[in-house]
Design brief:
Number of helices: 8
Oligomer: single chain
CATH class of the largest domain: Alpha Beta
Keywords: Membrane, Transmembrane, Transmembrane helix
Largest sheet: 4 strands, mixed
Transmembrane segments: 12-35
CATH superfamily of the largest domain: VSR Endonuclease
Structural class: alpha+beta
Number of strands: 10
Distance between the termini: 145 Å
CATH architecture of the largest domain: 3-Layer(aba) Sandwich
Strand order of the largest sheet: 7-8-9-10
Number of domains: 3
């Protein structure tokens, strides 16, 4: 009898449950899911706005480059050397080290780049590297300007090419005397001499442009280097270039080198 009553009760309640209670439960679940979805979207939207605002307040490599008179390629090269960024297929990705120093990943039209807050332009390592890069570029430009301005177009008797008539006279004199020499040998600190005599370790410099301030300054710097390193130096100017037969043998003898007369 009890079993019958329970079964009878279930037969009455189940239809009521499925027709009334279950829809309410489903409705509540759907409301909760929709609320979570809306909250997630609002959070994403606010994050995107926050991220966009942060990105807009930061500097690109090009903007940083302008502060140092460089280009974006130079800046990215320095950042790569410091390990702040790394190359990827579509640009550059920020590393953990770069993120620590204020880097933020950025994507625009399929390109990956890194933007930086202003701390990067005060970072000692970055500033040191970008300035080294600047000095290196300036030195390369100076060398290129030197090569362009003073082209080696005078052919000596032994087949070398020199940059001026005076150097041609000196080179031919040394060759005629059977004196082995080398051209443009580094003195020290990336500075080159005009001629070098291995026998006696003698450096020869011809000083020509005495009315050029930049040339005079460079001449003084080179003379200081010769003194600094205690090197054997023979100096030739416009007054002596026409009298090498008398002048050079005496100067060479001072450093223990005599001609085979």
């Amino acid at each position: 009898m009890q079993i019958f009553d329970t079964a009878n009760l279930l037969s009455i309640m189940l239809p009521a449950f499925f027709s009334f209670v279950l829809p309410i439960i489903i409705f509540v679940i759907l409301i909760n899911l929709m609320a979570k979805f809306i909250r997630r979207k609002l959070h994403q939207k606010s994050y995107v706005k926050f991220n966009q605002r942060n990105i807009a307040d930061m500097f690109s490599a090009k903007e940083i480059a302008k502060k140092f008179g460089k280009n974006a390629k130079d800046v990215n090269e320095v950042l790569l050397n410091l390990g702040f960024i790394k190359k990827c297929d579509n640009g550059y990705n920020v590393t953990d080290a770069g993120r620590y120093y204020g880097g933020m990943q950025n994507y625009y039209m399929g390109r990956a780049s890194v933007r930086w807050n202003e701390r990067i332009v005060y970072n000692e390592n970055f500033v040191d590297e970008i300035m080294k890069n600047t000095a290196k570029t300036a030195k390369e430009e100076q060398k290129e300007d030197f090569r362009e301005k003073f082209k080696a177009e005078y052919r000596t008797n032994d087949g070398h090419y020199v940059r001026s008539r005076a150097e041609l006279v000196i080179a031919n004199w040394l060759f005629a005397e059977g004196m082995a020499y080398e051209k443009r040998v580094p003195i020290k600190e990336d500075v080159y001499c005009d001629f070098y005599i291995p026998k006696g370790k003698i450096y020869i410099e011809f000083w020509g442009l005495e009315d050029d301030e930049a040339y005079i300054k460079r001449k003084e710097q080179k003379i200081e280097l010769y003194k600094k390193y205690g090197l054997n130096l023979i100096e030739i100017d416009n007054d002596k270039i026409g009298n090498l037969d008398d002048y050079l043998p005496k100067e060479l003898l001072k450093f223990g080198v005599s001609l085979n007369l």
